[in-house]
What does this fold into?
Amino acid sequence: MVKQKTKFVCQECGYESAKWMGKCPGCQSWNTMVEEMNAKPNASNRSYVTSGDTIHKAQPITAVKGEREPRVSTTMTELDRVLGGGIVPGSLVLVGGDPGIGKSTLLLQLSAKLAKTNERVLYISGEESVKQTKLRADRLELSSDQLYVLAETDVTLIERAIDEVQPSLVIIDSIQTVYKEEITSAPGSVAQVRESTAAFMRVAKTRGIAVFIVGHVTKQGSIAGPKLLEHMVDSVLYFEGERHHTYRILRAVKNRFGSTNEMGIFEMKELGLEEVLNPSEIFLEERSQGASGSVVVASMEGTRPVLVELQALISPMGFGNPRRMATGLDHNRVSLLMAVLEKRVGMLLQNQDAYLKVAGGVKLDEPAIDLAIALSVASSFRDQPTNPMDVAIGEVGLTGEIRRVSRIEQRVNEAAKLGFKRVIIPEKNLGGWTVPKGIQVVGVPTLDKALEVALRR
Ligand SMILES: Nc1ncnc2c1ncn2[C@@H]1O[C@H](COP(=O)(O)OP(=O)(O)OP(=O)(O)O)[C@@H](O)[C@H]1O
Ligand SMILES: [Mg+2]
It folds into this structure.
């Protein structure tokens, strides 16, 4: 009898070794090595990108028949935007997110919407029974004859079901629960996740069916299973949001068919996820006007400007080291801007605790928000309120200069649309574009000057 060869595979990074080790040499994490059977290379594993019956020969690119990918609209504007204009048939999309954030809800809603437009959809749940899925669908008031549901975890049986139903969209909820029988390791292990994804990849590419896969995330926030998974699929979307906020943000981290800096905003309601088409209005809804430390910034989220309120609270520190806390912002950037304020403006901040927050639970990571951060810190430190009708845009350099930012016109237009009266922008951005009616634009060259303009005594 042939001896079955086994190996030990790290569940975090996919490192392989012949013997068990407590600590993975690849990613230094503990207790992640799991015994797995060596999978036999299988003929059907090869060449999944091409369809089965053609002979594969290299050919000039001009000879390849290129149709523009037809896109199927999901009828959800926010989702279409993140996908790059709709679902591409034959694409494989991975949707990751924290437990309970609403992945199943989002995909069930997507399925039902698509089914309503007479596309057949197969929703496969490995986590919930068909009854549970039905209950959820009832609660969300979704139903359609074209929406098929199946509770199954065996990949071979799932493939059979796809053959029977002939859908144009398949949802796999989730990849960590499905398994291939040939592989002996448990569902959710590196080998299972990799092989099952490869199987769905084949389904997608050979039959032109779009497949959405749900993936769980690890404690660190990345999609559980090997990094390889993200390389295999066409698009990776993250569904995120703070547990205590009702807003949920869908971001593309990888997209072979579109831009990755788009974001879709949803609100979790009793009747499921509702699209937020005017995010600025919602993020500014609860603003306390005229308080010190509050500044509104226009940040670009993909191709769309979003106005958000930034808040800072600066208070004398107790003892030990001063605290720098930032929610929704990079705290290193906050420290850097506080150092610039200290050195270039002469504000004594080293013995002050600083707490900064972006309202609404959004994360901002664009250089153009620098000026707003600096202004909110200065406003709270000096206890001088800013004008609630002002918006601040600009990158701050280490010498205290205000640097040019991109897409200034779009940002100012959004501010004007929401009724703001004045925008403070980098002086270098002045000219070359039309200022919308009803808004005043002030260009500032340095941080010093910006403080003079923005803070009210
Ligand atoms: N009866 C209800 N009324 C209102 N909202 C509900 C109700 N039941 C669930 N929800 C909302 O739906 C969310 C769960 O959504 P969903 O099951 O889609 O999450 P998930 O990301 O698929 O979770 P998991 O990782 O466990 O599969 C809950 O956090 C809650 O906000
Ligand atoms: Mg779920």
The radius of gyration is 26 Å.
